[in-house]
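Quiz preparation item.
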């Protein structure tokens, strides 16, 4: 071959590996909040939006809870709250608890009654005369009165210048107990005025 012969065309060598194609980057879905031109969308927070959407449902739950009896571990008797079968905590063995007040001016009413369950009274303030069975008891602050099931009890009088405040605690109801005030004489259900007897 002469010095000025034409060059041979280039050919791939046998079993040559073709070059790898250049990877094409995946297309990103545009973030609407990021690319929106509306100022409100520029500051949108998905977590905050989800929380805002849950507020109406939360409000309905709170209102529903407040409107129905709830389990009470704190009983504010100053607000006339009391423990009942509808709101007592799970596992609580007491049937009911609360406070009653008899005014010292002789205008309060009370009914002679008994229960088909045991009950305790705790005198908080004031003094008075209580009938337990056939026995009259003069009570004062700090006294505890136990009234067994089937025992009549009544408040005859408030005997001091202060109103008589008494806490009660009704214990577990026996089987088939009513949990109510029971009266041997139906006329007792109407109650009577509690006298005011102040020492001279």
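Solution:
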């Amino acid at each position: 071959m002469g010095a000025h012969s034409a060059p041979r065309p280039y050919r791939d060598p046998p079993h040559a590996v073709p070059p790898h194609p250049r990877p094409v980057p995946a297309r990103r879905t545009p973030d609407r909040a990021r690319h929106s031109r509306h100022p409100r969308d520029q500051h949108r927070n998905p977590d905050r939006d989800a929380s805002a959407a849950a507020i109406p449902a939360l409000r309905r739950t709170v209102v529903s809870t407040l409107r129905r009896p709830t389990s009470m571990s704190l009983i504010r008797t100053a607000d006339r709250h009391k423990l009942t079968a509808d709101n007592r905590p799970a596992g609580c063995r007491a049937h009911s608890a609360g406070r009653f007040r008899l005014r010292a001016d002789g205008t309060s009413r009370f009914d002679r009654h008994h229960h088909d369950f045991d009950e305790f009274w705790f005198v908080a303030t004031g003094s008075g005369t209580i009938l337990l069975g056939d026995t009259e008891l003069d009570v004062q602050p700090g006294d505890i009165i136990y009234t067994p099931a089937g025992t009549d009890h009544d408040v005859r009088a408030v005997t001091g210048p202060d109103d008589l405040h008494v806490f009660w605690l009704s214990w577990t109801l026996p089987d088939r107990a009513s949990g109510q005030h029971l009266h041997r004489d139906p006329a007792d259900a109407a109650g009577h005025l509690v006298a005011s007897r102040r020492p001279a």
